[in-house]
Amino acid sequence: VVDGGANIRELNRSFGWSLPVEGPKTISGLIVEQLEMIPENCLCLRIAGYPIEVIKIESNMIDQVRIYP
């Protein structure tokens, strides 16, 4: 489980992942960019081959996500 404001480069470095680093700096920003909207409900999507589940949305922001490496 990752905070929505987590820095993508730090996640890649810490876990050996290859999430895209072009564009948004946070995992929340990456998800919003992919969806082209802020999700209203929890949902699942795949970015760069990684299944990502939005598990908590608070104050119209993605607060927590679960990433399956």
Describe the protein's architecture and organization.
- The longest helix is centred in the middle third of the chain and has 9 residues, at 27-35.
- The mean pLDDT is 95.
- The chain has a 4-stranded antiparallel beta sheet with strand order 1-4-3-2, covered by helices on one side.
- With 69 residues, it is of the alpha+beta class.
- Strand 3 (50-58) and strand 4 (61-67) form a beta hairpin.
- The chain contains 2 helices and 4 strands.
Summarize the structure.
The chain has 69 residues and is an alpha+beta fold. It has helices at 8-15, 27-35; strands at 2-3, 43-47, 50-58, 61-67.
Mind sketching the topology for me?
Elements lengths: L1 E2 L4 H8 L11 H9 L7 E5 L2 E9 L2 E7 L2
Antiparallel strand pairs: 1-4, 2-3, 3-4
Let me know the largest β-sheet.
4 strands, antiparallel
- The N- and C-terminal alpha carbons lie at a distance of 11 Å
Overall outline: globular
Order of helices and strands: EHHEEE
The structure class reads alpha+beta
Care to count the β-strands?
Answer: 4
So how many helices?
2
Give unreliable regions as ranges.
none
Strand content range:
25-35%
Q: Can you give the helix content as a percent range?
A: 10-25%
Mean pLDDT: 95
Side by side, the strands of the main sheet go: 1-4-3-2
Rg from Cα: 11 Å
Descriptive key words:
4 strands, 2 helices, 69 residues, 4-stranded antiparallel sheet, alpha+beta
